[in-house]
């Protein structure tokens, strides 16, 4: 019996030794491991200047082992792997203890990873706690030990560990927490830093200083017991507070991070990889950001967005090229990365009316067409009634022209127009403008009761700004790998005709009316308060709902949409909240047009201009010479009546 047992033991032992030898040989034949992974992806603006992205893309700054303070090396060795220089990648005693504890508790609560294993995980694997991942990690650790020196492994480890707050590596973390290089860290600073990677959310001094201090003290005691520091040094530092330099001031401007986040998302989708793979894949992403425009946008929002919880979503598109030149999806990315330009769906209010009136022009309406503006109760097909109101319950109580109705945002005129063209046809018009959201087929749709994103509305207005030619808003121009090989380049595609150019221009000129007080009626034009600020040619439309405030408009150069409101959909009641969207739009558009020529909208051949009395819709005559305005009509539709009384 004993011989059989001995023989069986020898066979099993031989098999295990052979298997281990095969694994060693296989590992060796794989050759030196690739440690040049997780390089930080870089982002560039439209002029291919490098953008600062440390607050969004995890920051890494590499530092050679000989430059790192010995206190740092000793602190991490004491905290993570005291036998680092004595083992070959695995601490068998720690592994045995960890396996015992894990079997007892039926989970994987206790780890025994050496610095080598942790470095392997940082390079190649995720935090998934499975035996398969552990086995692969062990093979990777063996390769590291075979082909790298201990100092090379420690250098790689110290440059890849995560410290929270987007900081990878001791140099980035040292700069972040202490505003100094890792080469200059004192022993107590090194011990505090060494305590963080065990759980950055728990042991970061910025998250919980007390817990961070407790772990630092534990590491200092271990350093003393291992003779990494003498007793005198330990006594001198054990109760000393370590001042933390909050590095928020050194982070990128959070206002531009919405743009960068959007670019990152689009780049990952284009390469069909995850955001994490993109972040640390060593790619070069060339974006469409106009840095000056982005800075102007951030600064204008700060100056005009009232204090409090009011949020903002705003984007600027070069409608001729489709480039998104500036974007801000909220008031503070660090507090809320939710992007209100691309992710939020909000009621559009009267900014939806241009779509309505484009359809109306196709159905035969003209800028001079009159409808009565008065309190009206509409009888619906289902037997119900609908009674819209104008802002402030004001009405002309008489006829007004389409030009006036759009400029002062008359709701009665809009609903009557919608009744004429039908809600289904209005929805079809919205589809033509690129709005695919689920829109209600009801009379109130004419007043913007449907919801969509700020980006969709900007694209819809950009279509008008581009003379009805299609636009394809994009934020990533090109992506290359670290060797410069082009992996993606935005295709140059000719625009397609989406809207009739002549009708698009007639509507564009109508939209310039919100800034022209010659179109005042029972109410002032909606852009009257910002008109004195404007020195260029603009077309646009404001819009409000109880919970939303909009201003969207364009010049021959740029289209900008601004939305303000509350995330919880509470009503906007304060005057400063109500006017913020218009104020931001006007000031910002003037800033980005400062060095642009004053350029009017190009008049196509299929339209003709005539001076019209805005009140009656008649051609200029002896009775209205002092109040006429130039309006444009599809050829053959200019009014024939002349105002003689």
| Biggest sheet, spatial arrangement of strands | 6-5-17-16-15
- The low-pLDDT segments are 95-111, 247-253
What do the pLDDT scores average to?
Answer: 86
SS-based class? alpha+beta
Could you tell me the number of beta strands?
19
> What would the principal axes of the Cα set say about the shape?
elongated
Number of helices: 21
Largest sheet: 5 strands, antiparallel
Residue share in β-strands: 5-15%
Radius of gyration: 33 Å
What is the terminal-to-terminal distance?
127 Å
Oligomer: single chain
List the helices and strands and how they pair.
Layout: H1 2-29, E1 42-44, E2 59-60, H2 70-80, H3 92-105, H4 115-124, H5 131-147, H6 150-158, E3 167-168, H7 170-178, H8 187-194, H9 200-203, H10 209-225, H11 231-237, H12 257-271, H13 275-279, E4 284-287, H14 291-304, E5 311-318, E6 323-328, E7 346-347, H15 353-362, E8 370-373, E9 378-379, E10 385-386, E11 398-401, H16 402-408, H17 411-421, H18 423-432, E12 451-452, H19 454-465, E13 476-480, E14 486-489, H20 501-511, E15 539-545, E16 548-554, E17 559-565, H21 575-592, E18 607-612, E19 629-634
Parallel strand pairs: 1-4, 2-3
Antiparallel strand pairs: 4-13, 5-6, 5-17, 7-12, 8-11, 9-10, 13-14, 15-16, 16-17, 18-19
């Amino acid at each position: 019996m004993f011989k059989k047992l001995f023989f069986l033991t020898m066979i099993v032992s031989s098999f295990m030794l052979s298997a281990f030898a095969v694994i060693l040989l296989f590992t060796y034949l794989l050759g030196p491991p690739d440690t040049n992974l997780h390089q930080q992806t870089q982002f560039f603006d439209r002029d291919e200047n490098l953008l600062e992205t440390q607050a969004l893309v995890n920051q890494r700054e590499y530092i050679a082992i000989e430059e790192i303070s010995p206190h740092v090396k000793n602190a991490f060795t004491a905290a993570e792997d005291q036998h680092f220089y004595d083992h070959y990648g695995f601490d068998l005693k720690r592994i045995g203890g960890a396996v015992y504890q894990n079997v007892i508790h039926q989970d994987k609560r206790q780890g025994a990873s050496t610095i080598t294993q942790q470095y392997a995980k940082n390079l190649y694997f995720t935090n998934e706690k499975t035996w398969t991942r552990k086995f692969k990690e062990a093979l990777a650790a063996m390769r590291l030990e075979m082909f790298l020196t201990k100092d090379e492994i420690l250098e790689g480890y110290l440059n890849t560990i995560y410290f929270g707050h987007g900081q990878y590596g001791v140099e980035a973390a040292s700069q972040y927490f202490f505003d100094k290089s890792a080469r200059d860290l004192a022993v107590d600073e090194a011990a505090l830093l060494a305590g963080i990677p065990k759980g950055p959310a728990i042991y970061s001094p910025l998250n919980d200083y007390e817990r961070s201090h407790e772990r630092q003290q534990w590491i200092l005691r271990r350093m003393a017991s291992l003779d990494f520091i003498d007793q005198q040094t330990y006594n001198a530092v054990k109760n000393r507070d370590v001042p933390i330099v909050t590095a928020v001031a050194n982070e990128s401007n959070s206002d531009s991070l919405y743009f960068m986040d959007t670019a990152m998302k689009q780049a990952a989708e284009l390469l069909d990889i995850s955001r994490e793979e993109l972040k640390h894949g060593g790619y070069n992403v060339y974006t469409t950001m106009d840095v000056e425009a982005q800075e102007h946008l951030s600064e204008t929002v700060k100056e005009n967005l009232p204090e409090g919880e009011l949020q903002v979503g705003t984007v600027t598109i070069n409608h001729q090229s489709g480039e998104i030149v500036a974007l801000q999806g909220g008031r503070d990315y660090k507090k809320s990365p939710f992007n209100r330009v691309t992710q939020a769906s909000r009621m559009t209010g009267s900014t939806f009316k241009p779509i309505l009136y484009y359809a109306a022009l196709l159905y035969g309406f003209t800028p001079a067409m009159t409808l009565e503006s008065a309190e009206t109760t509409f009888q619906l097909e289902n037997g119900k009634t609908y009674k819209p109101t104008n802002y402030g319950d004001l009405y002309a109580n008489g006829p007004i022209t389409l030009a006036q109705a759009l400029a002062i945002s008359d709701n009665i005129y809009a609903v009557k127009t919608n009744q004429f063209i039908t809600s289904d046809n209005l929805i079809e018009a919205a589809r033509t403008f690129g709005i695919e959201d689920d829109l209600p087929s009801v009379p109130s749709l004419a007043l913007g009761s449907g919801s969509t994103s700020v980006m969709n509305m900007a694209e819809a207005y950009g279509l008008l700004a581009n003379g009805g030619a299609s636009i394809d808003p994009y934020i990533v121009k090109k992506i290359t790998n670290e060797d410069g090989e082009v992996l993606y380049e935005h295709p140059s595609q000719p625009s397609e005709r989406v809207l009739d150019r002549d009708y698009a221009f007639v509507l564009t000129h109508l939209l310039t009316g919100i800034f022209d007080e010659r179109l005042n009626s029972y109410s002032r034009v909606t852009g009257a308060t910002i008109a004195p600020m404007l020195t260029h040619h603009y077309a646009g439309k404001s819009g409000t709902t109880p919970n939303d405030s909009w201003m969207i408009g364009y010049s021959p150069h740029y289209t900008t949409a601004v939305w303000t409101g509350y995330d919880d959909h509470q009503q906007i009641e304060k005057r400063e909240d109500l006017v913020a969207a218009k104020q931001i739009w006007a000031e910002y558009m003037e800033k980005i047009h400062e060095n642009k020529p004053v350029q009017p909208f190009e008049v196509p051949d299929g339209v003709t201009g005539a001076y019209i009395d805005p009140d009656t819709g008649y051609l200029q005559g002896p009775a209205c010479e002092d109040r006429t305005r130039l309006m444009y009509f599809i050829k053959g539709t200019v009014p024939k009546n002349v105002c003689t009384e």
